[in-house]
């Protein structure tokens, strides 16, 4: 059991990434995973425990006993429901069956048979809303969205902010999420849409197709966004958006504690300041380029400032009650 006691928080964050990679492209990552597991004995047990708990992961495969010289083949096994905290992110990456298409919103507003529902949050507020059809929306701080539930359509107009959509699948009432001049359509799924000067989408369950339009230059083959991937682009940008792998941090914004892995300190401060009236700043702005990792209580300005100060070997100036100035 000593091997598991040697496991660090960084190992636990990395094992989630390895499971996600194996869900996506097992052949590509098999050898690298074998090397990572062999580097520390406890990692093998950690990976097996997390992977064995994943339910209905059709592409991920567990690692068998590993030969030091050559990784053994990978076999499929049955999965059990996951109850660990890290599993919430992984479960929502699985069971891909939803098809979403992103396209420019050229059509006019639909005629709804019900009154629209306007939902909004204050800066720093995160709120869960349950809809009449059993779907859930989680609104990030300073978000405004209008919900139209009709007999033949579910439409969501995101004016600003970020929303986590957990939408019941209903082919008879397809969904349409509009943000600026872009839209996401489908029948259901689990995904984030953010409209903060640019459109950002993170797909947790299902797959998504982005059809290039004039905003991205000449039309080309559709761009697929699968479970565990994300993209972001600004309206009218000349180039195609880049698809990137999602990370556990993309899921964790609905929680108080969030994992940061090799993130610029300036980005961490910007996110924390969005949740608190007490603002964090750096006396030396160049320190914002330093990169930090750790599990941080993102909605507690004091916790964030203390984590940054400890990382930098700095002090916190609390002379102004509305500011936490980090000085080194």
UniProtKB/TrEMBL annotation:
Transmembrane annotation, as ranges: 82-102
Swiss-Prot/TrEMBL keywords: Membrane, Transmembrane, Transmembrane helix
Top-level taxon: Bacteria
Keyword Transmembrane helix applies: yes
Family matches, as Pfam families: FecR
Any one Gene Ontology molecular-function term assigned to this protein's record: sigma factor antagonist activity
Ranges for domain FecR protein: 119-208
PANTHER family xrefs: PERIPLASMIC SIGNAL SENSOR AND SIGMA FACTOR ACTIVATOR FECR-RELATED, PROTEIN FECR
Annotated protein name in UniProt: FecR protein domain-containing protein
